[in-house]
């Protein structure tokens, strides 16, 4: 199969690209940086620039006759109080986490329609199902991608194209080093410091990227997809159904306790 993966310079994306390349698939990695690997072909691409995305897909189609799978993995984190976040920071986040993913889908869909087959996985977050403290805009950007995923599933279904959102919990990567970190004003500093230390410890104790690759491989072997899948440690995944069934106030109190707020 021909697989395109975005955000392959490090972390989950790099692990996915190497994993599927070792399995014998033809893998193309799109990321801002060129990556040296014997298992996949790196095409330097800024997915927030639609011209660069279209050029990358054109290059791939000169080498391959089809595009079977797109994994929209590229993204970034953002931490800080909602009140202190700037317009520039918010737009930068949404431009990558939402617009970049949409542009990549738009670039591969003509070929997938032509071949009447395709699978697209949009990497989301368990945090998209709830407003995480001091990660409000990250949660919002991934939630927006979730809704786009739900919408496009209807639109492309006549061509046997499957789309889903894969919500990940904390994965052991260097995401903490690459997050956008807003200014934190004095009123929030004490609480933010506690929550920030906790969120970084969760990443350090997170699931290994290789486990994500193995899960995605199982997902790709399914004949049909649900709109949403959840992967991560039980303590994080359980937050999703609890939000569906618990009264709002009780759920918020649980979230405060989990995040050591109050």
UniProtKB/TrEMBL annotation:
SUPFAM superfamilies: NAD(P)-binding Rossmann-fold domains
Any Pfam family hit: adh_short
UniProtKB keywords: Oxidoreductase
Organism: Chryseobacterium suipulveris
Superkingdom of origin organism: Bacteria
InterPro entries in alphabetical order: NAD(P)-bd_dom_sf, SDR_fam, SDR_oxidoreductase
Protein name: SDR family oxidoreductase
Family classification: Belongs to the short-chain dehydrogenases/reductases (SDR) family.
